[in-house]
Amino acid sequence: METQKKIALITGANRGLGLEIARQLGNKGMIVLVGARNEMAGVAAVEKLSQQGIVAHFLPLDITKAESIAAAVNQVKNQFGWLDVLVNNAARLPVKPEDQHNPSDISQELLAEYMDINFMAQVATTQAFLPLIRLSSAGRIVNMSSTIGSVTLTSEPLHQNGPKPARLAYAAAKAAFNMFTVTLAKELVGTGIKVNAADPGLTQTQVGQERPNANTVEQGAKPAVWLSCLDDDGPTGCFFTHWLNHETVNPW
Ligand SMILES: NC(=O)c1ccc[n+]([C@@H]2O[C@H](COP(=O)([O-])OP(=O)(O)OC[C@H]3O[C@@H](n4cnc5c(N)ncnc54)[C@H](OP(=O)(O)O)[C@@H]3O)[C@@H](O)[C@H]2O)c1
Protein backbone atom coordinates (compact mmCIF):
# COMPACT_ATOMS: atom_id res chain seq x y z
CA MET A 1 0.00 0.00 0.00
CA GLU A 2 1.49 3.28 -1.13
CA THR A 3 0.04 6.11 0.94
CA GLN A 4 -2.33 7.81 3.38
CA LYS A 5 -3.01 10.73 1.00
CA LYS A 6 -6.46 10.93 -0.60
CA ILE A 7 -6.77 9.02 -3.84
CA ALA A 8 -8.96 10.37 -6.61
CA LEU A 9 -9.86 8.62 -9.84
CA ILE A 10 -11.09 10.82 -12.67
CA THR A 11 -12.42 8.97 -15.70
CA GLY A 12 -11.65 10.45 -19.12
CA ALA A 13 -8.89 12.56 -17.59
CA ASN A 14 -6.57 12.67 -20.58
CA ARG A 15 -8.10 15.92 -21.87
CA GLY A 16 -10.81 18.52 -21.37
CA LEU A 17 -12.51 18.93 -18.01
CA GLY A 18 -11.23 15.59 -16.71
CA LEU A 19 -7.61 16.70 -17.04
CA GLU A 20 -8.38 20.02 -15.36
CA ILE A 21 -10.26 18.35 -12.49
CA ALA A 22 -7.23 16.06 -12.03
CA ARG A 23 -4.95 19.11 -12.00
CA GLN A 24 -7.04 20.95 -9.40
CA LEU A 25 -7.44 17.88 -7.15
CA GLY A 26 -3.71 17.17 -7.50
CA ASN A 27 -2.95 20.74 -6.44
CA LYS A 28 -5.02 20.07 -3.32
CA GLY A 29 -2.62 17.27 -2.41
CA MET A 30 -4.58 14.28 -3.68
CA ILE A 31 -2.97 11.47 -5.62
CA VAL A 32 -4.77 11.52 -8.95
CA LEU A 33 -5.44 8.48 -11.08
CA VAL A 34 -5.81 9.56 -14.69
CA GLY A 35 -8.39 7.20 -16.16
CA ALA A 36 -8.03 7.03 -19.94
CA ARG A 37 -8.85 4.51 -22.65
CA ASN A 38 -5.93 5.61 -24.82
CA GLU A 39 -2.55 4.78 -23.29
CA MET A 40 -0.53 7.41 -25.14
CA ALA A 41 -2.99 10.15 -24.23
CA GLY A 42 -3.19 8.97 -20.62
CA VAL A 43 0.57 8.83 -20.18
CA ALA A 44 0.96 12.26 -21.80
CA ALA A 45 -1.59 13.70 -19.37
CA VAL A 46 0.26 12.16 -16.40
CA GLU A 47 3.52 13.68 -17.66
CA LYS A 48 1.87 17.11 -17.93
CA LEU A 49 0.53 16.84 -14.37
CA SER A 50 3.81 15.51 -12.98
CA GLN A 51 5.68 18.48 -14.47
CA GLN A 52 3.41 20.68 -12.33
CA GLY A 53 4.42 18.80 -9.17
CA ILE A 54 1.26 16.68 -9.02
CA VAL A 55 1.38 13.02 -8.02
CA ALA A 56 -0.44 11.33 -10.88
CA HIS A 57 -0.71 7.78 -12.20
CA PHE A 58 -2.12 6.51 -15.49
CA LEU A 59 -4.99 4.06 -15.06
CA PRO A 60 -6.06 2.30 -18.27
CA LEU A 61 -9.86 2.48 -18.26
CA ASP A 62 -12.46 2.21 -20.99
CA ILE A 63 -15.71 2.63 -19.11
CA THR A 64 -17.73 0.79 -21.77
CA LYS A 65 -15.71 -2.45 -21.35
CA ALA A 66 -16.37 -4.70 -18.35
CA GLU A 67 -12.90 -6.29 -18.49
CA SER A 68 -11.23 -2.88 -18.56
CA ILE A 69 -13.22 -1.73 -15.53
CA ALA A 70 -12.38 -4.96 -13.65
CA ALA A 71 -8.66 -4.59 -14.42
CA ALA A 72 -8.72 -0.95 -13.26
CA VAL A 73 -10.42 -1.89 -9.98
CA ASN A 74 -7.76 -4.58 -9.40
CA GLN A 75 -4.95 -2.15 -10.13
CA VAL A 76 -6.29 0.42 -7.63
CA LYS A 77 -6.92 -2.32 -5.04
CA ASN A 78 -3.40 -3.72 -5.36
CA GLN A 79 -1.63 -0.36 -5.52
CA PHE A 80 -3.59 1.60 -2.91
CA GLY A 81 -6.20 -0.65 -1.25
CA TRP A 82 -9.06 1.83 -1.39
CA LEU A 83 -10.44 4.85 -3.29
CA ASP A 84 -11.57 8.18 -1.80
CA VAL A 85 -12.95 10.05 -4.80
CA LEU A 86 -14.49 8.87 -8.05
CA VAL A 87 -15.28 11.53 -10.64
CA ASN A 88 -17.42 10.00 -13.39
CA ASN A 89 -16.34 12.44 -16.08
CA ALA A 90 -15.76 10.41 -19.26
CA ALA A 91 -18.57 10.81 -21.75
CA ARG A 92 -19.56 11.15 -25.34
CA LEU A 93 -20.29 14.80 -26.11
CA PRO A 94 -22.70 15.87 -28.88
CA VAL A 95 -20.07 17.33 -31.23
CA LYS A 96 -20.72 15.41 -34.47
CA PRO A 97 -23.28 16.53 -37.11
CA GLU A 98 -25.34 13.35 -36.54
CA ASP A 99 -25.69 14.32 -32.86
CA GLN A 100 -28.14 17.05 -33.93
CA HIS A 101 -31.44 15.21 -34.19
CA ASN A 102 -35.07 15.59 -33.22
CA PRO A 103 -36.84 13.21 -30.85
CA SER A 104 -39.12 12.28 -33.77
CA ASP A 105 -36.31 10.95 -35.96
CA ILE A 106 -33.46 9.80 -33.72
CA SER A 107 -32.23 6.30 -34.59
CA GLN A 108 -32.32 3.47 -32.05
CA GLU A 109 -28.59 2.95 -32.67
CA LEU A 110 -27.61 6.50 -31.69
CA LEU A 111 -29.92 6.46 -28.68
CA ALA A 112 -28.43 3.14 -27.51
CA GLU A 113 -24.87 4.40 -28.05
CA TYR A 114 -25.41 7.46 -25.84
CA MET A 115 -27.27 5.50 -23.17
CA ASP A 116 -24.44 2.97 -23.15
CA ILE A 117 -21.56 5.45 -22.69
CA ASN A 118 -23.25 8.25 -20.76
CA PHE A 119 -25.45 6.17 -18.47
CA MET A 120 -24.94 2.37 -18.39
CA ALA A 121 -21.13 2.63 -18.34
CA GLN A 122 -21.25 5.22 -15.54
CA VAL A 123 -23.39 2.90 -13.42
CA ALA A 124 -21.10 -0.07 -14.15
CA THR A 125 -17.96 1.92 -13.28
CA THR A 126 -19.46 3.20 -10.02
CA GLN A 127 -20.72 -0.24 -8.98
CA ALA A 128 -17.31 -1.77 -9.63
CA PHE A 129 -15.39 0.84 -7.60
CA LEU A 130 -17.93 1.09 -4.78
CA PRO A 131 -16.34 -1.66 -2.62
CA LEU A 132 -13.06 0.33 -2.66
CA ILE A 133 -14.88 3.61 -1.96
CA ARG A 134 -16.62 1.98 1.03
CA LEU A 135 -13.14 1.48 2.51
CA SER A 136 -12.49 5.25 2.44
CA SER A 137 -13.13 7.32 5.55
CA ALA A 138 -14.89 9.95 3.40
CA GLY A 139 -15.92 8.56 0.02
CA ARG A 140 -17.07 11.08 -2.60
CA ILE A 141 -18.71 10.22 -5.93
CA VAL A 142 -19.10 13.07 -8.40
CA ASN A 143 -21.16 12.56 -11.54
CA MET A 144 -20.56 15.02 -14.37
CA SER A 145 -23.95 16.11 -15.60
CA SER A 146 -25.34 19.02 -17.60
CA THR A 147 -28.24 21.46 -17.65
CA ILE A 148 -29.15 19.59 -20.84
CA GLY A 149 -30.05 16.65 -18.57
CA SER A 150 -32.39 18.80 -16.48
CA VAL A 151 -36.04 18.14 -17.35
CA THR A 152 -37.07 21.26 -15.42
CA LEU A 153 -34.74 23.61 -17.31
CA THR A 154 -35.42 21.98 -20.67
CA SER A 155 -39.16 22.46 -20.20
CA GLU A 156 -38.76 26.22 -19.64
CA PRO A 157 -39.51 28.03 -22.94
CA LEU A 158 -36.94 30.77 -22.38
CA HIS A 159 -34.11 28.59 -21.17
CA GLN A 160 -31.29 27.85 -23.62
CA ASN A 161 -32.40 24.19 -23.76
CA GLY A 162 -36.06 25.14 -24.11
CA PRO A 163 -36.90 25.93 -27.71
CA LYS A 164 -34.44 23.42 -29.17
CA PRO A 165 -35.74 19.85 -29.00
CA ALA A 166 -32.46 18.50 -30.36
CA ARG A 167 -29.87 16.17 -28.80
CA LEU A 168 -32.39 13.90 -27.09
CA ALA A 169 -29.81 11.10 -26.81
CA TYR A 170 -27.31 13.14 -24.78
CA ALA A 171 -30.06 14.79 -22.73
CA ALA A 172 -31.86 11.53 -21.89
CA ALA A 173 -28.64 9.79 -20.87
CA LYS A 174 -27.68 12.70 -18.57
CA ALA A 175 -31.22 12.75 -17.09
CA ALA A 176 -30.91 9.02 -16.37
CA PHE A 177 -27.47 9.65 -14.85
CA ASN A 178 -29.09 12.32 -12.63
CA MET A 179 -31.59 9.74 -11.41
CA PHE A 180 -28.71 7.36 -10.64
CA THR A 181 -27.11 10.16 -8.60
CA VAL A 182 -30.21 10.72 -6.48
CA THR A 183 -31.06 7.07 -5.94
CA LEU A 184 -27.48 6.03 -5.12
CA ALA A 185 -27.13 8.95 -2.70
CA LYS A 186 -30.27 7.75 -0.90
CA GLU A 187 -29.04 4.16 -0.82
CA LEU A 188 -25.72 5.26 0.68
CA VAL A 189 -27.10 7.56 3.39
CA GLY A 190 -25.44 6.60 6.66
CA THR A 191 -22.29 5.23 5.02
CA GLY A 192 -20.45 8.57 4.92
CA ILE A 193 -20.26 8.36 1.13
CA LYS A 194 -21.63 11.42 -0.67
CA VAL A 195 -22.95 11.27 -4.22
CA ASN A 196 -23.60 14.47 -6.15
CA ALA A 197 -23.93 15.71 -9.71
CA ALA A 198 -21.74 18.54 -11.06
CA ASP A 199 -22.68 20.74 -14.00
CA PRO A 200 -19.66 22.57 -15.46
CA GLY A 201 -21.81 24.77 -17.70
CA LEU A 202 -20.87 25.22 -21.33
CA THR A 203 -17.09 24.96 -21.20
CA GLN A 204 -14.30 25.57 -23.70
CA THR A 205 -13.37 21.95 -24.32
CA GLN A 206 -13.92 20.41 -27.75
CA VAL A 207 -17.66 21.11 -27.51
CA GLY A 208 -17.57 24.75 -26.42
CA GLN A 209 -14.28 25.88 -27.90
CA GLU A 210 -15.76 28.35 -30.40
CA ARG A 211 -18.23 29.87 -27.92
CA PRO A 212 -16.72 33.03 -26.42
CA ASN A 213 -19.25 33.06 -23.57
CA ALA A 214 -18.29 29.51 -22.51
CA ASN A 215 -16.52 28.85 -19.22
CA THR A 216 -12.79 28.27 -19.17
CA VAL A 217 -11.87 24.72 -18.13
CA GLU A 218 -10.63 26.17 -14.83
CA GLN A 219 -14.15 27.53 -14.14
CA GLY A 220 -15.97 24.46 -15.46
CA ALA A 221 -13.98 22.12 -13.20
CA LYS A 222 -14.83 23.99 -9.99
CA PRO A 223 -18.18 22.36 -9.04
CA ALA A 224 -16.68 18.86 -9.45
CA VAL A 225 -13.58 19.77 -7.46
CA TRP A 226 -15.64 21.30 -4.67
CA LEU A 227 -17.89 18.20 -4.51
CA SER A 228 -14.82 15.93 -4.45
CA CYS A 229 -13.56 17.72 -1.33
CA LEU A 230 -16.83 18.02 0.64
CA ASP A 231 -16.66 17.93 4.42
CA ASP A 232 -18.62 15.29 6.33
CA ASP A 233 -21.50 17.74 6.82
CA GLY A 234 -21.67 18.56 3.09
CA PRO A 235 -24.66 17.77 0.88
CA THR A 236 -25.48 14.51 -0.88
CA GLY A 237 -27.95 13.75 -3.67
CA CYS A 238 -27.73 17.29 -5.09
CA PHE A 239 -26.96 18.92 -8.45
CA PHE A 240 -24.54 21.85 -8.41
CA THR A 241 -23.42 24.24 -11.10
CA HIS A 242 -21.11 27.20 -11.56
CA TRP A 243 -23.69 29.87 -12.44
CA LEU A 244 -23.30 32.21 -9.49
CA ASN A 245 -20.63 30.21 -7.75
CA HIS A 246 -19.89 26.50 -7.72
CA GLU A 247 -22.38 26.00 -4.88
CA THR A 248 -25.44 27.00 -6.93
CA VAL A 249 -28.08 24.27 -6.99
CA ASN A 250 -29.52 23.19 -10.36
CA PRO A 251 -33.07 21.89 -10.65
CA TRP A 252 -33.26 18.24 -11.72
N1 LIG B 1 -17.74 20.88 -22.09
C1 LIG B 1 -18.98 21.24 -21.78
O1 LIG B 1 -19.47 22.30 -22.23
C2 LIG B 1 -19.81 20.38 -20.85
C3 LIG B 1 -21.05 20.89 -20.44
C4 LIG B 1 -21.83 20.11 -19.56
C5 LIG B 1 -21.36 18.88 -19.14
N2 LIG B 1 -20.16 18.41 -19.58
C6 LIG B 1 -19.74 17.09 -19.10
O2 LIG B 1 -18.41 17.19 -18.59
C7 LIG B 1 -17.70 15.96 -18.84
C8 LIG B 1 -16.38 16.26 -19.57
O3 LIG B 1 -16.70 16.94 -20.77
P1 LIG B 1 -15.54 17.50 -21.73
O4 LIG B 1 -16.11 18.67 -22.43
O5 LIG B 1 -14.27 17.63 -21.00
O6 LIG B 1 -15.42 16.30 -22.78
P2 LIG B 1 -14.25 15.94 -23.82
O7 LIG B 1 -13.27 17.06 -23.92
O8 LIG B 1 -14.94 15.47 -25.06
O9 LIG B 1 -13.53 14.71 -23.10
C9 LIG B 1 -14.23 13.54 -22.93
C10 LIG B 1 -13.31 12.56 -22.25
O10 LIG B 1 -14.04 11.34 -22.07
C11 LIG B 1 -13.22 10.29 -22.57
N3 LIG B 1 -14.01 9.13 -22.96
C12 LIG B 1 -15.00 9.06 -23.87
N4 LIG B 1 -15.46 7.80 -23.95
C13 LIG B 1 -14.74 7.06 -23.06
C14 LIG B 1 -14.73 5.71 -22.69
N5 LIG B 1 -15.55 4.81 -23.24
N6 LIG B 1 -13.86 5.29 -21.72
C15 LIG B 1 -13.01 6.18 -21.14
N7 LIG B 1 -12.95 7.49 -21.48
C16 LIG B 1 -13.81 7.91 -22.44
C17 LIG B 1 -12.46 10.91 -23.72
O11 LIG B 1 -11.36 10.10 -24.08
P3 LIG B 1 -10.70 10.11 -25.59
O12 LIG B 1 -9.73 11.25 -25.60
O13 LIG B 1 -10.07 8.78 -25.69
O14 LIG B 1 -11.84 10.30 -26.55
C18 LIG B 1 -12.07 12.24 -23.08
O15 LIG B 1 -10.96 12.07 -22.24
C19 LIG B 1 -18.67 15.07 -19.62
O16 LIG B 1 -19.32 14.20 -18.74
C20 LIG B 1 -19.65 16.07 -20.22
O17 LIG B 1 -20.90 15.48 -20.50
C21 LIG B 1 -19.37 19.14 -20.42
From TrEMBL:
The keyword Metal-binding does not apply. InterPro entries: NAD(P)-bd_dom_sf, SDR_fam. One of its GO terms (molecular function) is oxidoreductase activity. It comes from the Bacteria. The keyword Oxidoreductase applies. Keywords: NADP, Oxidoreductase. SUPFAM superfamilies: NAD(P)-binding Rossmann-fold domains. Belongs to the short-chain dehydrogenases/reductases (SDR) family. This is NAD(P)-dependent dehydrogenase, short-chain alcohol dehydrogenase family.
